[in-house]
Amino acid sequence: MLCCRVDSPMAEKEEDAAGMFGHVGYCDIPAITVDSLFDFLFSLNFPIKFFVYLGDTPAHDTYYQYPLKQMRGITYVSELLSSKRNKTGDVYPVLGNHDTYPCDHFDPYTDKHQWMLNNITSLWKPWLNKNSLKTLNTKGVYSQLHPGTKLKVIGLNPFVMLSTNPYLWNGKSDPLGILTWLEKELAESEVKKESVLILSHESPEVGIMNPRNTFSYK
Predict the structure, then answer these.
(1) H or E segment at 87?
(2) How many angstroms separate the CA atoms of 68 and 75, rounded?
(3) Contact 133, 72 (CB under 8 A)
(4) Which of 29, 116, 148, 174 has the fewest CB atoms within 10 Å, i.e. is most exposed?
(5) Cβ neighbours for 218, distance < 8 A, ≥ 6 positions apart
(6) Do residues 71 and 78 lie in contact, with contact meaning Cβ atoms separated by under 8 Å?
(7) pLDDT tens digits along 78-113
(8) Rounded to two decimals, what is the model's pTM?
(9) Backbone φ and ψ of 91, nearest 5°
């Protein structure tokens, strides 16, 4: 998780300001700290096989957010990583629950949040293959082999596992068919004797916030 205050309001009190190194009360950090962190990581004298980017990039100032602002933070970090890709090797990204607007809200049954999928598909195009970009744009997930290995990397959509996502409270199961898709991907890897690395910002939260929230399927 990398919460970046690229475009956030100023703190009302000086003692509450994030400053160069962030704030003890929140995980959000200013862009200058992100730059410094990446400069340090990519100056280390060992090869980086791949970089895992687990989302939650925008600042957590929930009541100051809007779609364009969310994308500014994600764009900033994505472009920063892309500019250093020759040093990071491959990058495998996933969405975080704070990456959309409003936070935790993602409608898997309409195109209401297609703006976010369209934007990340464009931003993450340097890192993912054609099939991955297709499922990312339609489901928010992807699966691909790490080059030269038998390691399959699977990136999941956290919003279909969030009990705080009100669009899941209708009792429907397997939003976007992602569980069915994941089962198929895992079965294929088992046959091919591939290792699998599953990436997700969130783990499944079955009914934690709402007892109607069920994710089983038949």
Answers:
(1) helix 85-88
(2) 10
(3) no
(4) 148
(5) 173
(6) no
(7) 988 888 766 556 899 999 999 999 999 999 999 999
(8) 0.83
(9) -125, 130
